[in-house]
Amino acid sequence: MTITVVGAGYVGLVTAAVFSELGNKVYCVDVVPEKIEGLKKGIVPFFEPSLSEFITRNIKAKRLFFTTSYKESVPKSQIVFICVGTPPKESGEADLTYLFAAVEETAKNFNHGYTLITIKSTIPIGFEDQLEATVKKHASSKFEFASCPEFLREGTAIEDTMHPDRIVIGSTSQKAQKILLELHASISGERIITDIRSAQLIKYAANSILATKVSFANAIAVLCERMGADVEKVLAGVGADRRVGRSFLYPGIGYGGSCLPKDVLAFIAIGRHFDYDFQLLQAVDSINNDQIENFINKVKSAVGGKEGNLKGVKLAMLGLAFKPNTDDMRDAPSIKIANHLTDLEATVVAYDPQAMDNAKRVIKNIKFAKDAYSAITGADAMLIITEWPQFREMDLKKAKKLLKKPIIVDGRNIFNPKTVKEEGFTYLGMGR
Ligand SMILES: NC(=O)c1ccc[n+]([C@@H]2O[C@H](COP(=O)([O-])OP(=O)(O)OC[C@H]3O[C@@H](n4cnc5c(N)ncnc54)[C@H](O)[C@@H]3O)[C@@H](O)[C@H]2O)c1
To answer: Which stretches in the chain have pLDDT values below 50?
Structure first.
């Protein structure tokens, strides 16, 4: 099939890479010319394992093309995947400016007998009529809308797209269902075929349950600290039950990234539109925000003396990305933590294996080190912010020599408290 993918971000590029790998002819359109120029040479504008190899291979095979022109791609395509961003507005609602612009440009360039506009972006429920009206303003040829929400995880995006748990197809049109089933034929995973609204709801509900698990783990962690229990053992015991599962049941400094925070807030806002007060998710969001404060309080108690004063204290933040294996800094908890620490007049030196360039754009007033050991040199404490594998494997004897004070505040529980204490460290984890 010939496909257009609109938006060369995380979702768009992975979608384009995988469908071209599977033998389709794919055009990927973006409005940022520099991004497209780079992509034509195989330069991926962010870090995602294997993505650049997939892209380079399919450019060479003449199955994958990058362009800024809808005109060059949409008329040839039977399917147009919309993969543009839907960032949060101040109110928590999703900003649909990019979505409507992309759909409008697509509509202006229809030329195929039938075009299936398939929305992969996460968009709120209830915009079908407006989207349809936008297309009808410009296009006279036949078209249909479908929703095909994306569930990839950054860091394992290619694997997730090639071998997903499920493929959700939201359309009541038999023709649209047939086309999308055929396109996904060689991809594994359960097929869930439903109407557009249910498909969109699946996406918001899925991210919300993941966020709920994280906040639940954090609430248990707070209780464990007060009760003198070990959260890691408690959650291992809870998660061993297959009805619950251990995935996402980990305490820490809270969830971040481009999806969970914004989708939880957007889901609360969507609920409001439909006259539902989503108290559960409000609590999930509020527990998530509290974890930043909890972590800062631990740092204060570990290095700030009786008063918890951090003025002039030097702190090393290890990890900045919202999770390992990505350079994505969108809504990363590290941003709030760094700002909070510098507001308290601490000196912060940070290191992340991949996210330094992006971090420099969004975190000011801190220093950046060339590696983890340089970051901790002369620091009053080492703070674990992202659970990159290389931090777990650090040489603790060396770390102890480099630090001014042997203190670890572990926001991700990556270390075994017994081992680090035996090495002579003061150790504060989350909920243990
Ligand atoms: N990133 C994820 O892990 C993930 C996972 C599942 C779903 N989603 C959802 O998928 C959507 C896209 O997310 P993302 O992380 O890929 O976003 P992104 O910001 O990385 O990429 C969006 C791209 O769209 C381009 N764009 C904006 N307006 C355009 C237009 N009119 N025409 C062509 N291109 C345009 C931008 O230049 C950008 O390159 C969002 O709704 C997000 O919630 C993201």
So the answer is: none
